[in-house]
Design goal:
The chain is mostly helical. It is built from twelve helices and no strands. It has one domain. Helix 2 runs parallel beside helix 12.
Length: 250
């Protein structure tokens, strides 16, 4: 790898780590960068997933205060995320690469729509959140599992989906819900990464660069991220996502 490629992938990893901690669509930054440097879509996705795991861990640590008292939730939803992540990773490896190349533009499109309408989604979550005295009975673990399948297969905007699911199910502050989201997304990425390390082809250089950058980005986001303009952040993600779709379909 040349110096420009190293710098671009590391910077993309930093941006993705920050975005995943705050929202959950960092793959839309790193995945197109790897495609641009000539990696095949499946190799780019596998290497990206592995690289983002340390950033997921760092993001969860950064929100550790908001995780206090949520051990039962982590265990309950964590099992669903674990099983979903395994399912999605196996599907990625078992289905032909042509299927991935056909499906991923659709997934990116879904992710971009989620990002564009995130403000409305946040408003919906706020308006329909259970009352404080509720205890989260009948919480949608099946939906968390399905989000895990999506995350293990590709993962862009997995965090946005989890925020919506958890926000509508749990009677809690959105910062605490976001902290739980970071843990669940980290579980999905982590278990999918283990599957990929065992049986898939990994571009270890880019994965290591994304890992290093994502840790820095996640820590910065946990400390300073609330100062960022959500509108500007969404605009950048949407622009990069559209570029990825164009690159995949041409």
């Amino acid at each position: 790898m040349g110096a420009a490629e190293i710098a671009a992938i590391a910077a993309a990893g930093m941006a993705a780590g920050a975005i995943n901690t705050l929202v959950g669509s960092g793959t839309l930054i790193t995945f197109p960068v790897l495609l641009a440097f000539g990696y095949s879509p499946v190799t780019a996705n596998v290497s990206n997933t592995i690289g983002l795991v340390p950033g997921s861990v760092a993001g969860a640590i950064g929100y550790r205060r908001e995780l206090e008292g949520q051990r039962t939730r982590v265990l309950r939803f964590g099992v669903a995320s674990l099983l979903g992540g395994i399912t999605g990773a196996v599907l990625l490896l078992e289905l032909p690469q042509s299927a991935f190349e056909a499906i991923v533009p659709v997934f990116i499109g879904i992710a971009l729509v989620s990002i564009v309408f995130q403000t409305q989604l946040d408003r919906l979550v706020t308006e329909h959140r259970p009352p404080p005295e509720a205890h989260g009975t009948g919480t949608p673990r099946v939906l968390v599992y399905l989000a895990g399948v999506y995350g293990g297969y590709f993962g862009a905007a997995q965090g946005i989906l989890l925020l919506a699911i958890l926000g509508l199910a749990l009677p809690d502050d959105l910062h605490r819900v976001n902290a739980l989201k970071n843990v669940l997304a980290g579980i999905v990425n982590g278990v999918a990464a283990l599957v990929f390390i065992a049986v898939a082809h990994v571009a270890w250089g880019p994965a290591a660069l994304i890992a290093a950058g994502s840790v820095v980005g996640a820590q910065l986001a946990a400390r300073y991220g609330r100062r960022l303009s959500p509108r500007a952040l969404r605009a950048v993600i949407v622009a990069v996502g559209i570029a990825a779709i164009v690159q995949l379909v041409t």
